[in-house]
Amino acid sequence: MSMQYRADHLRSRATAMTAMFLALASVLGLVEAMYMPPLPVPGAKIGLANLAVLLALVFLGPGRALFVSLGRVLVVGLATGMLGGPPFVLSMSGALVAWLVMWRLSAQGERYSVVGLSLGGAAGHTVAQLVAAVAVIGSAAPLLMMPYSLGMACFTGLAIGFTAHLLLSRLPQPALSVAR
Fold it and tell me: Which of 14, 56, 94, 172 sits CB 3.0–4.6 Å from 65 for a disulfide?
């Protein structure tokens, strides 16, 4: 097998896996948007789509995980009719900051498990959404929800993190990973 063939094969595989994780994140995001009951904290969600972003980060690396994260926000925004509206702005800011936190934590090597990455991402997402809500409505009132929202983020971050850990323990990592 030539070096060029191997490089093309890995690139094609990474593209296919990116599309698969984007589709998974989009479906999970739509299911959560349409069918999940509300949580006790207003505006809080479980963050099912972040499961696909976490897996993309582990298997594909930070660049493709960012594509999955932001792509999911666009697909769900388009499918729900919220593209460009305030919910879209909140979702995009949360997704971007969650990815940024998870990327920086993952850059620390083996120091943080996937559960730690998920917790960091959930906390970053929550803070970013509340700050974006302040900017959107022009009032600091959403910041009053910070303690409750961060408490819920810990719960949901743990749930998604342990789910990702369980999935990763059952998947053949070397066979799937194309991260550089």
Answer: 56
CA distances from 119 to 39, 135, 153, 157 (A): 17, 25, 7, 4
Paired tokens of 7: 């490089």
* pTM, 2 dp: 0.88
Cα–Cα distance measured from residue 60 to residue 180, given in angstroms and rounded to the nearest whole number: 8
Say how far apart CA 142 and CA 160 lie, in whole Å.
25
- The CA distance from 73 to 83, in Å, is 9
Q: What is the tens place of the pLDDT at every residue in 80-126?
A: 998 989 999 999 999 999 999 999 999 998 899 999 999 999 999 99
d(C-alpha 22, C-alpha 53), whole Å: 8
E-strand ranges in the chain read none
Burial class (CB in 10 A: 0-12, 13-18, 19+), 74: middle
Using CA atoms, how far apart are residues 106 and 57, in angstroms rounded to an integer? 8
Q: Write down the CATH number for the domain with range 3-176.
A: 1.10.1760.20
